[in-house]
């Protein structure tokens, strides 16, 4: 009995079909893309590019999951996450820069207004 | 010079055996990491830079083991993004510090100047806080909607076979559960089941378009079967609409025997082919 189970497991592993769908990775890639969108990634060209790459790869991974190619889907989702996380940071960088410029401008204006 | 000779031999062996050149993705990843390591990231975002290094190491290891395989390119791609992330993090940190410096600068102003600067700074910060607040509220609403959708999905999976496909979420209901043989009037038990499906659809996917497809086995005339499929799809649609699914987002199609999912030569296969599929298209955003 035990041998049968071990054999079955080995067989499944060998065929690659035993990898469960990477649902957690899909969820975290989608969450990262959502955060990027919330932070205004669509308004900043570099962030928008990486957000688009992330979305495309998420769609591609979903198709792979539907075809049960979970191994490939997992890697594509890791790619998607790395793009989405980059989009998040680029959007943050963009707003941090805007805030800094604004603060500097105000100080300059007030100082020169004396 | 002597010290380097062993690694050099090892390297030339690797190159000799591996025989593959590093893919462009890996060359890019190495360059991206070098650029990041030389820039402000080393000071401003050492943790992210470290992650980028680990990511690059993984790509290198995969290249050594698998050569110019797709997986090598994937890891190299990710390593490039991690290096870019470290750089962007560093730039964001610098911008943050610039702002703080400007605010400190404002404190060195006097009297009238100070009040004016403070009020202007406060108003920009007020605006920022307001948008933060808005974002938090929107996020909460979205999370709520997602939770509902997940619950609806879990409910559905208890009563029917649900599969995620590229055309959307496909809910498959067996024909024998819904209709008597050759009939297109719903069985009483089917109505109960469809009501549960309708509840899940209105709760979980209130904006998605829905297609109901009636499928049959291949026995008998094709034309008759297509018509039977249409009538059955109509019956299912009408029941879903009666239970509250908006009628303008749901359509019924008679597919008949044209798209079997099992072998029509066996009784079991035919039973599997007699089915109704409810396809929930992915929501548009």
Please characterize this protein's 3D structure.
The complex is a heterodimer of chains A (114) and B (285). With 114 residues, chain A is an all-alpha fold. Chain A has one domain (17-112): Substrate Binding Domain Of Dnak, Chain:A, Domain 2 (Up-down Bundle). Chain A is 83% helix and 0% strand. In chain B, strands 1-2-5-3-4 form a five-stranded mixed sheet. In chain B, strand 1 (161-165) and strand 2 form a beta hairpin. The interface between A and B is medium-sized, with 32 and 37 residues.
Mean pLDDT of chain B: 83
Number of domains of chain B: 2
- Helical content of chain B stands at 55-70%
Unreliable runs of chain A: 8-16
Query: Strand-and-helix sequence of chain A, N→C?
Result: HHHH
Oligomer: heterodimer
Major protein interface? A-B, 32 and 37 residues
Number of helices of chain B: 10
Radius of gyration of chain B: 31 Å
Helix and strand pattern of chain B: HHHHHHEEHHEHEHE
Which second-level CATH architecture of chain A applies?
Up-down Bundle
Structural class of chain B: alpha+beta
The total strand number of chain B stands at 5
Helix content of chain A: over 70%
Strand composition percent of chain B: 5-15%
- CATH topology of chain A, by name, is Substrate Binding Domain Of Dnak, Chain:A, Domain 2
């Amino acid at each position: 009995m035990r041998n049968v189970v071990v054999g079955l497991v080995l067989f499944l592993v060998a065929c690659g079909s035993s990898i469960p769908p990477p649902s957690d990775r899909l969820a975290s890639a989608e969450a990262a893309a959502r955060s990027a969108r919330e932070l205004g990634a669509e308004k900043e060209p570099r962030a928008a590019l990486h957000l688009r790459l992330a979305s495309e790869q998420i769609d591609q991974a979903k198709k792979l999951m539907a075809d049960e190619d979970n191994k490939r889907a997992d890697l594509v989702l890791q790619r998607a996450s790395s793009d989405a996380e980059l989009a998040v940071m680029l959007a943050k960088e963009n707003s941090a820069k805007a805030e800094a410029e604004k603060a500097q401008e105000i100080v300059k204006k007030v100082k020169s207004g004396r | 010079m002597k010290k380097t000779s062993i690694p050099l031999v090892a390297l030339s062996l690797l190159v000799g055996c591996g025989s593959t050149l590093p893919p462009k993705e890996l060359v890019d990843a190495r360059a991206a990491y070098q650029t990041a390591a030389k820039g402000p990231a080393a000071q401003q975002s050492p943790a992210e830079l470290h992650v980028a290094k680990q990511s690059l190491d993984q790509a290198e290891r995969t290249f050594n083991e698998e050569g110019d395989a797709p997986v090598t390119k994937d890891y190299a791609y990710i390593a490039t993004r991690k290096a870019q992330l470290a750089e962007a993090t560093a730039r964001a940190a610098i911008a943050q510090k610039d702002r703080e410096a400007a605010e400190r600068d404002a404190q060195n102003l006097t009297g009238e100047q100070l009040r004016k600067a403070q009020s202007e700074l406060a108003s920009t910060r007020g605006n920022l806080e307001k948008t933060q607040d808005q974002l938090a509220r929107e996020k909460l609403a979205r999370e709520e909607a997602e939770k509902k959708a997940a619950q609806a999905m879990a409910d559905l999976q208890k009563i029917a076979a649900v599969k995620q496909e590229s055309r959307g979420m496909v809910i498959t209901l067996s024909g024998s559960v819904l209709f008597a043989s050759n009939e297109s009037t719903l069985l009483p038990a089917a109505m109960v089941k469809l009501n549960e499906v309708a509840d899940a659809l209105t709760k979980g996917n209130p904006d998605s378009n829905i297609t109901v497809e009636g499928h049959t086995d291949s026995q008998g005339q094709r034309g008759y079967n297509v018509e039977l499929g249409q009538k059955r799809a109509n019956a299912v649609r009408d029941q879903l609409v009666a239970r509250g699914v908006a009628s303008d987002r749901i359509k019924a199609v008679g597919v008949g025997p044209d798209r079997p999912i099992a072998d029509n030569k066996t009784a079991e296969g035919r039973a599997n082919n007699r089915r109704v599929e409810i396809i929930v298209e992915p929501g548009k955003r």
